[in-house]
Design goal:
Chain lengths: ~550, ~120
């Protein structure tokens, strides 16, 4: 098998793993075992890829290290200092070998002394670490020696204006659209050259897109760095004692998303200080510590990022919120029928506040409508949980990158639409006309005709029907689903989604648009909107 | 009609090699997944004929993913992909619902032989 065409990909991924190993070893040296699983996986991946490429020294060395890490992982071996020192030395050798691959040079480093040391350590034997300077380790001088003048080398890190990346991303988006026309053409063509060419072009465009996206990623830390100061200032003004805990901020998001999150975050924190956290004396009499705590934690959930802001303050009383909403003119019957979760979301109504006093900086509710709009505008979702007396948690679930969405193409009526794949629970094909409901995962799932729901004319009854099952959020531990009947479905599609601009953005039920290979525009469905209309139809 | 395949491996490198081999061999790779969770959701949504699962993956490993995927109706054929040194785990994988396995390094001959050996 000709492996040369995979070399660039090999180098790119291996280098990522090598950086991961470096960070993991530093962590391990500090006595933390939390990264051991990842560390193990890095060695495992380098081994596997090197084996496929036929890079023997890289394969055997990383294999020996993988075994050692496996023993540490299973706690049958403790990460003693000589183990970590040896692993660092091995890392330098792995790097040297990868550099040789990069330069197309023979991999003529003798890794056997290192391997026997690693094996001895795996077996629990003490091996004296040779007291040598790194350049005397059994690694060829050519690979290790730094060229003269290395001290004055320009840094590998460059500062580039954010705008440049915005433009690059737009260009890649256009490339994607051009590419889909070629793909369409090559599928219809019999020319192998055209097929190969389009395949290669597609690979490069994907790689380009991936690199640009990763260059645009910034850790949430960049945004939260100044929050401690914000909390200090607001709580000082409000006469409260508030501590801020920040967790998990190394997770990164696209710059444009992070940028938009600044003011919502400050709004949420302000609300928490002004209306969530009680004054020290009130807290004391409620049996709570005098100082309140706000916790911001970020974590990844599948391909999305979740940012949670919790306070241990007085919480939101759903009944009070409901009353306020009715005072402000909401339909009392609708409000009365609301679930707990829905009534908490009422704080996002413009101008609604549950706090008896409105302070200089905020009233609970002031700004929450804006927060919700920003989060949803970014393709995210906002959730509020609160328990009176215990505190409030505001959760924002956000996409980590923009623009490319994995989708499933479906046909409904005379139109085609895109379903975001992450929202699909399952696709089921049935013969005959679709029933009014089906059984799935132990639930009775109502089936709704997507074309009818959207308001399209319905085509002739089909001999078979396809049902796309989507989970709907509901109260309680039980899961609920809705099935959408469509006429047909295609393959998974990486769609470059362009946001809708006014007046198109006011269209119901769609969240974006993409241009297909043949130039046809196809809408991306707005699943939350579609689900809520389906729920209304079903209940009426 | 060509068989629809979902491939799951955390290394883009292996996914690319595998996809090239499969495409050349006349299979239709309908989705790629970078971890077990993604593999399960793609298998659910796209109902491929075959899922190829790497064992060591983040979030959810290949064995755990196989246990979920084997519950799907109509059944999806599961092939495990293991690295050298992992042969003992193959037995566990077969118990978890896999019907065949491939030992890396990947080669065209090896991969296509395993896929062609699948019974319908």
């Amino acid at each position: 098998m000709d492996t040369s065409k995979y070399k660039a990909l090999y180098l790119q991924e291996t280098n990522t793993h090598l950086s991961g190993i470096e960070a993991g070893l530093l962590d391990l040296e500090k006595g933390s075992l939390s990264e051991v699983d990842n560390l193990f996986r890095h060695y495992h991946s380098i081994k596997g890829m090197s084996a496929s490429m036929g890079y023997e020294p890289l394969k055997v060395l990383s294999h020996a290290e993988e075994d050692l890490l496996d023993r540490i992982r299973s706690k049958s071996l403790a990460p003693a200092p000589e183990i970590i020192t040896t692993l660092f030395e091995c890392l330098d050798t792995l790097k040297a070998l990868v550099r040789l691959v990069e330069e197309d040079k023979p991999l003529d480093l003798d890794v056997s002394p290192l391997i026997s040391r690693v094996r001895a350590l795996s077996e629990g034997k003490q091996t004296p670490v040779p007291a040598q300077a790194p350049h005397e380790t059994p690694v060829s001088a050519q690979a290790q020696a730094a060229p003269a003048g290395a001290e004055l080398r320009i840094s590998n890190v460059m500062k580039v204006e954010g705008r440049v990346f915005d433009e690059l991303l737009t260009t890649v988006g256009d490339l994607f659209m051009a590419l889909s026309s070629f793909k369409e053409l090559s599928q219809r063509s019999r020319s192998i050259e055209l097929k190969d060419g389009v395949h290669l072009l597609g690979k490069s465009v994907n790689a380009l897109h991936k690199n640009i996206l990763s260059a645009r990623m910034l850790p949430i830390r960049d945004l939260t760095e100044s929050l401690p100061r914000v909390v200090r200032d607001i709580s000082g003004k409000a006469g409260k004692d508030v501590g801020l805990k920040i967790e998990g901020t190394e997770i990164s998001l696209d710059r444009s998303i992070l940028e938009d999150l600044g003011s919502p975050l400050v709004h949420i924190i302000r609300n928490a200080v002004d209306h969530g956290i009680e004054t020290p004396s009130v807290r004391e009499s409620a049996g709570k510590p005098r100082a309140g705590t706000i916790t911001l934690s970020a974590y990844a959930r599948r391909d999305r990022a979740v940012i949670e802001i919790s306070d241990d303050g007085r919480g939101i009383d759903p009944e009070k919120i409901k009353m306020k909403a009715v005072e402000k003119g909401a339909d009392p019957r609708k409000v009365a029928a609301m679930t707990r979760k829905e009534s908490l979301m009422l704080v996002c109504l413009p101008g609604l506040t549950s706090a008896e006093t409105v302070t200089e900086t905020s009233g609970r509710g002031v700004g929450m409508d804006i927060v919700k709009a920003v989060v949803e505008g970014l393709g995210g979702a906002l959730e509020i949980e609160s328990e009176p007396g215990k505190g409030t948690t505001i959760r924002m679930e956000l996409p980590r990158t923009t623009s490319i969405v994995k989708t499933l193409l479906v046909t409904a009526g005379s139109e085609q639409f895109l379903f975001p794949i992450t929202k699909i629970e399952r696709v089921i094909e049935l013969s005959g006309e679709a029933p009014a409901s089906i059984e799935y995962a132990g639930c009775k799932v109502p089936v709704v005709d997507l074309a009818l729901l959207i308001g399209l004319s319905v085509s002739v009854p089909a001999r078979s029907s396809t049902i796309v099952i989507v989970e709907r959020e509901q109260e309680g531990p039980e899961r609920g689903f809705v099935g959408f009947m469509v006429d047909d479905f295609g393959v998974e599609l990486d769609a470059y989604i362009k946001p809708l601009l006014p007046p198109m953005s006011r269209l119901w039920g769609v969240a974006g648009i993409t241009i297909m290979g043949d130039g046809r525009p196809v809408f991306l469905l707005d699943i939350p909107q579609i689900l809520s209309r389906a729920a209304n139809r079903l209940s009426s | 009609m060509s068989k629809r395949v979902v491939i799951a491996d955390d290394a883009d490198f292996h996914r690319t090699v595998l996809k090239d081999i499969l495409t050349k061999g006349g299979f239709d790779v309908v989705a790629e997944a970078a971890n077990g969770e993604e593999a399960v959701s793609r298998a659910r949504a796209l109902r491929p004929d075959i899922v190829i699962l790497d064992i060591v993956m983040p979030l959810m490993n290949g064995i755990e993913a196989a246990r979920e995927i084997r519950l799907l109706e109509p059944p999806v054929k599961i092939i495990m992909c293991t690295s050298l040194g992992y042969e003992p785990i193959v037995e566990e994988a077969l118990k978890s619902g896999a019907c065949a396995y491939i030992v890396k390094p990947l080669s065209e001959k090896k991969v296509l032989a395993v896929l062609d050996g699948l019974k319908d």
